[in-house]
Amino acid sequence: MPRVSPVLRQGRKAFRDLDLVKVLQSEIKHELSTDRFQDSQSGSLGDFQLEWELPQSKDVVLRRKLMSGEEIAVSAVLGPVMFKRDGMFPRDVLMKVCVKKPDMTSMLQFDCNVGSEFDIRNAYYLPSPTCMGLSVYRGPSFSILGPQLQEALKEYLVAKGIGEGLTDFLLLHLHKREQG
Questions:
Q1: What gap in Å lies between CA 171 and CA 176, rounded to an integer?
Q2: Within the chain, where are the H helices?
Q3: Residue 36: what pLDDT?
Q4: What is the pTM for the complete model shown?
Q5: E strands along 34-144, which residues?
Q6: How far is the C-alpha of 131 from the C-alpha of 142, rounded, in Å?
Q7: Which residue of 7, 10, 132, 144 sits 20 to 30 Å from the alpha carbon of 106, by its own alpha carbon?
């Protein structure tokens, strides 16, 4: 009789594993049958052009050139998974926005976060594009700048086309792309 007990335990474990497989199959079937982002605002690229988007890549790159010759580049990727998060989108979008004036090698770089709100995390002046990866002093943390300066920098980005339409587009586009 002692042998029957291990066999019964293995049998029970197999049934539990089978139940788990059925539950997982049901969840996958449900996820595939529903579009959780269908009621979302689609947003708009505005005057930006989608410059880079490969199926094997996780990021997208947008570019806009103004009549003045000024160039704005946006690189966006989904951030890490956030547990216990309220809201429709389970992940934020991490964005780098670079603004370059014509006939200058220097540029401004903004590190942004788009979730329920659009936030600037850091703002940098880069003497040249080759400085992006170097350990150059990048100034004080954005969070310790005065509230008026923080708001002015946010308004600057909105004036350059980094507004609600674009951020809504990126949130929806990157989440749909990941779901696909």
A1: 9
A2: 4-33, 147-159, 164-179
A3: 52
A4: 0.69
A5: 49-52, 60-65, 71-78, 93-100, 107-114, 118-126
A6: 19
A7: 144
